[in-house]
Amino acid sequence: MKNLKTILDNTSGISGYRISEKNVKSYELFFVHRSLETVRSTDTKATWVTVYVEHDGAVGDSNFPVFESMSDDDIREKIKTAAARAMLVSNQPYELPAGGELEAELPTNLDKYEPETLGRMIADAVFDADDVPGGSINALEIFIYRDEKHVVNSRGVDKKETVHRVMIEAIPTFTDEKQSVELYEDYRFTVFDKEKITAEIREKMKETADRYKAEKPGRELSINVVLRPFEIASLCGELSYDCNYQSIYSHANLHKEGDDLQTGDGDKINLTMRSVIEGSENSAFFDGDGASLTDKQIIKDGVICGSFGSVRFGQYLGVKEPSGSLGCIELGAGTLTDEETEKEPYLECASMSGIQIDLYNDYIGGEIRLAYLHENGKITPVTGISMSAKLSEVLSTLRLSEKTDVSRNYKGPVKLLMKGVSVL
Amino acid sequence: MPFSAYLDSMREDCRELVAELKKSFDYVSVLGTDVRSSVYRADRRMSMAADGEGECGFVIKMHSGKSFYEYSCDDISGDKKALAAKIISAVKTDPALVSRQISAAAVKDEPMKKDFVRETDFAGFTDEYLLGVCKQISNEICAKDEKVLNAFGMIMPYTVSKLFVTANRELSQHYGWANGYSMAIYNDGRMVQTRHVEGSDKLSEVIENTKASVDEVVELARHLVKAQPIKPGVYDVITDASITGLIAHEAFGHGVEMDQFVKDRALAKNCVGEYVASPITNMHDGAAAAHSVASYFFDDDGVLAHDTQIIKDGILVAGLSDLASATQLGTEPTGNGRRDNYRRKAYSRMTNTFFTPGKDKLEDMIASVKHGYMLFETNNGMEDPKNWQIQCTAEYGIEIVDGKLTDNYVSPVVMSGYVPDLLKSISMISDTFKVEGSGFCGKGYKEWVRVSDGGPNLKVRVKLG
After folding, report:
1. How many domains, in total, are found in chain A?
2. Is A33 on the interface with B (CB under 8 A)?
3. With contacts defined as CB-CB under 8 Å, which chain A residues touch B229?
4. A44, A250, A363: residue with CB nearest B412
5. Same structural domain for residues A339 and A410?
């Protein structure tokens, strides 16, 4: 980084630069059933340089990766090529973030263990949940990461951030002589908690056993459907896309500030983009430009009230203090209680192939791998079904639970209830 | 553009590292990668000419006689004894897990020394020209209709150099591919996005075909703003090549990736030799099976490219494997060991996956449908190889009534159901064939690799929603 900065500082013909470096060290374990198939380790660095050239009242930029294989002369040649490319690009001028030194680390306890020890502890925590009769974990992948990010630019930004994180991909399976079914578990954390891991996997093991018992409902349904945090986060992500500076600048946003997404009597959506959510690996202290981050509410009581995004596109839209690119999202709690949910029959989606949300086509739907049909005091696992609904109608009438939790980059209600959804 | 000069200069380093690590492991390979790409993009308000995602580094794979180890790094120059010691330390295993390692058979290391090159025409195009093409595409789409809010032209060429070295094997390959995109954002009371995608190792073809797509994206946008949601139900469906490919890929391809067999994660494992599709159905996969985006010469395990027939006359005959899964299953690897990049593990992955053509004429297929839809353009899909459920989304469909395509467009269209039901419902296959190479495929929700898929038009019966 130091050498690269010196070369860039001594390069004429550019008006600015940004160096973005990410060093990732990982320790990875791959299990086939309970047996260890592969042990991996990585120690790699990804460095990107962006050069900026002011010309003809506009700004051009171009970037390139710097590989370990490159000599200083190679880098000088890449800078020269990037500067020439930037001369071909005529974008609206903008200022890079200025000043600010920072060295931050997300709270963690992962750094207290040797990687191979932590890997074994995580594996033990997962396999401790493998005690459901008929169940097994057919595959397990454990990724232990230490990410060091470093952003430097020509206007004095010099910020470093360290994130320790773990991703577990587990495949709980339930088998007997007739059939075998599985579900997919992707669990991420920044703090090791053995009991929490085991509880998470055990819950998924139980759901897999339920999928085994699940049958296709004998009829088409028009019913209340309850989504869980992973799918709620997808919906929030889609809504936030409309409020991103870049979407607005490129005319890709469907809704604009002041638009009311909720004309019905459901719980009102309050959506805030955040830099840090405790326990989320997506938490950050600065964005890819090295800009400081400011939390920003984008939907208030169902009405779009703000926008967020990078310094560059914020400036393009005339935003005085752009928020920076915020990676976490918080949805305000609603009023839905468990008792209220149970008043009418409903379908609780436990596992979907991937929820499909299309703002343009006013659509929400997808294939459901496992759901629980709550009806007449009974809970019946069901599978082999698909749901579809008009997104605008869902937004108008949705209900949000009082209870909240954190899932990846999302903090918010654990349940979102959609009314009268078609299930085939 | 020749093979990477850097990788060429690292051949001896690779050999020395293999020799050093062979003192501790039965089998050692070093894969060096040098992938370079560029992105040219223009819309109504912005433009871009820059490098795209690339990679340059090494992954060292080792087999102890029992299980596998891998180490990824950016550089292998310098003291090989010290590097070998660092690698061995980095893949150290907790003592409690050592007794739980698999016992896979020894890895074969057949002697071979070969250099593969497929030339491109990329060097004949300047940055200025390519960005100019993108600006021209954007401007022309915007000029077509005042309801176009924004339009994009994008061209992305990339080149791949890979070097694979073991004690007995030294392979190198160099090839390239380019994609072109045109896209419109259109608002006529309702907003829609339409796009056209091109792919070829001839940049000249990509440029011409992308430029020629301007009318198509605007015309499609005019139809899609009027599109209605489909009434959920089970319909007779005619697929375009893209949707055929989506079915080949999502419905069946993931289920025959043999690392899933090892984990008992694929229903297909128990169906080899059985009818899984209608008897008129034939399906292939392989880097050597078609000329498209995944047409490499050897995979990331150093196994030469194959053409694997997966379904023959409706019967499942073979799966796709990487080195690790083939070793555990006692089969020969099929050249399907692929990595997202040198930082990631190799898995069994699809390459170019397609159904082969039949004898039917498309017009006869459409004429045979009383009421149904013709589906176009892949949006996305998700596999479920264990339970053979599928979810595939088409960008749009056109209603067929009494054997004729109407002007009634529906969008989006989600196909879902049970894979064997879908494949056994194939009743007609067109005599046309097209493989499209513009997509990326994930394993679960990660490990992205470039793939192509396609084939002829199919007539199937499937649930749409």
Report:
1. 2
2. yes
3. 361-363, 388, 390
4. A363
5. yes
The residues pairing with A358 across neighbouring beta strands, listed in sequence order, are A363
Is any Cβ of chain B less than 8 angstroms from the Cβ of A63? yes
CB contact under 8 A, B345 and A28: yes
User: Which band of pLDDT confidence, cut at 50, 70 and 90, is reported for residue B1?
Assistant: low
Burial of residue A312 (CB within 10 Å: 0-12, 13-18, 19+) is buried
Q: What is the mean pLDDT of residues A65-80?
A: 95
Q: Which CATH number fits the domain that encloses residue A202? A: 3.30.2290.10
Going along B335-419, which residue ranges are E strands? 337-338, 347-348, 352-355, 371-382, 389-401, 404-410, 413-418
Q: In angstroms, rounded to a whole number, what is the distance separating the alpha carbons of residues B263 and A68?
A: 37
Distance from CA of A29 to the nearest CA of B (A): 9
- Whether residue B384 is predicted with pLDDT greater than 80 in this model: the reply is no
The first and second tokens of residue B418, run together, are 């049970």
Closest residue in A to B234 (Cα–Cα): A424
Q: Which residues of B touch A138 (CB under 8 A)?
A: 263-265
Tens of pLDDT, residues A113-156: 999 999 999 999 999 999 888 899 999 999 999 999 999 999 99
Min CA distance, B47 vs chain A (Å)? 6
Nearest C-alpha in A relative to B134: A89
Residues A26 and A87 in one domain: yes
The answer to whether the CB atoms of A68 and B328 lie below 8 A apart is no
* Residues in Cβ contact with B5 at an 8 Å cutoff, skipping those fewer than 6 apart: none
Given an 8 Å threshold on Cβ–Cβ distance, is B69 in contact with A40? yes
Q: Do A26 and A41 form a contact (C-beta atoms < 8 A)? A: yes
Q: What is the ipTM score, two decimals?
A: 0.95
CA distance A364 to A423: 12
DSSP A218-263: SS-EEEEEEE-HHHHHHHHHHHHHTTBHHHHHTT--S--TT-BS--
Q: Which residues in chain B are closer than 8 Å to A63, comparing Cβ atoms? A: 50-51
Contact check, Cβ <8 Å, A62/B50: yes
Enumerate residues 85 to 114 of chain A having a beta carbon within 8 A of any beta carbon in chain B: 85-86, 88-92
Distances (CA, A) of A30 to A41, A151, A172: 11, 33, 15
Which residues 310-329 of B are in CB contact (within 8 Å) with A? 324, 328
**Residue B198: inside a domain, yes or no?**
no
pLDDT of B154-206, one tens digit each? 999 999 999 999 999 999 999 999 999 999 999 998 999 999 999 999 999 99
Domain count, chain B: 2
CA dist., res. A339 & res. B60, Å (int): 57
Of B94, B117, B140, the last residue of a domain is B117
- Which of B117, B144, B170 terminates a domain? The answer is B117
From A365's Cα to the closest Cα of chain B, the distance in A is 8
Cβ within 8 Å of B, A 198-217: 211
Tokens of A375: 């009806």
B249 occurs within a structural domain:
yes
Q: Which of residues 214-233 of B touch A (CB under 8 A)?
A: 227, 229, 232-233
pLDDT tens figures, A78-123 = 999 999 999 999 999 999 999 889 999 999 999 999 999 999 999 9
Note the Cα B22 to chain centre separation in Å.
34
Tell me if chain B has a CB within 8 Å of the CB of A134: no
Question: Which pLDDT score, from 0 to 100, does residue A367 have?
Answer: 86
Q: Tell me: do A342 and A363 sit in the same domain.
A: yes
Characterize the bridge pairing of strands B191-200 and B283-285: unpaired
Residue B9, burial from CB neighbour count under 10 angstroms (0-12, 13-18, 19+): exposed
Domain limits for position B317: 233-464
φ/ψ of A197, rounded to 5, equals -65, -50
Q: Are A37 and A43 a contacting pair, CB within 8 Å?
A: no
